[in-house]
Amino acid sequence: MKILASQENKLCVICKINVIAHRSKKFCSYACMGISERTTYSRRRNVFPACKDCKKPLHSIIAIRCMACRGIYFSRDRSAGWQGGKTILQKIIRTSSRYIAWRKSIFERDEYTCQECKSKGVRIEANHIIPFSFILRFYKIENFQEALNCNDLWKLNNGETLCKKCHQELRPNRPKYYNVLKLQKTI
Predict the structure, then answer these.
(1) By C-alpha distance, which of 155, 97, 93 is closest to 130?
(2) Residue 22 Cα to chain centre, angstroms
(3) What is the pTM of this model?
(4) Residue 123 contacts by C-beta under 8 Å, 6 or more apart in sequence?
């Protein structure tokens, strides 16, 4: 490489790597330049930015909150995926002792075997034949007590054991249960 008159050997200000550059260049990369800007910002102002909520020092001059406070701040109704608490109800139901007992009874009834491909020894999941979310919408279940009182949610006839692969393949092909008579006949 030919060194021009306007170029000279310099050391990077941050990592001390030899840099062949124009007179104005002080850094070997954009990463080193970013580190320098953050440190000179802090040194120049003698202030390290603090989290808006917990007042802990931040590592970025752009951030307003630390990672822990950001997770709390953007939860529930401030989250882009918030659906009015519906997800929380499903999580409460799926982690309840009654749901876990329902899953275990389905697995024991089917002898821990996938009902589609008949494989054993793979990761299995309990599947609601009539979808869990449809039952919640159909019976307008708003809280955990209503879910406990809904018998159709806990019937063993509405459950089957599937391996993870078969369960994922089933989801897009699942029939829509809009007809009330179909719901009552299948359960």
Answers:
(1) 155
(2) 46
(3) 0.52
(4) 163, 164
Those residues with Cβ within 8 angstroms of residue 7's Cβ, 6 or more apart along the chain or in another chain? 20, 21, 22, 23
Residue segments in the chain with a per-residue pLDDT below the cut of 50? 1, 41-43, 178, 180-181
Are the C-beta atoms of 22 and 6 separated by less than 8 Å?
yes
d(CA 32, CA 43): 16
End-to-end CA distance of the chain: 79
The residue behind tokens 């719901």 is: 183
Tally of residues, the chain: 187
Residue 173: per-residue pLDDT: 67
What are φ and ψ of residue 184, in 5° steps? -75, -30
- Cα dihedral 139, 143, 146, 150 sign: positive
DSSP 136: H
Q: How far apart are CA 120 and CA 161, in angstroms?
A: 11
Q: Given the structure tokens 């159909």, which residue do they identify?
A: 138
- Cβ-Cβ contacts under 8 Å for 144 (sequence gap 6 or more): 89, 92, 93, 96
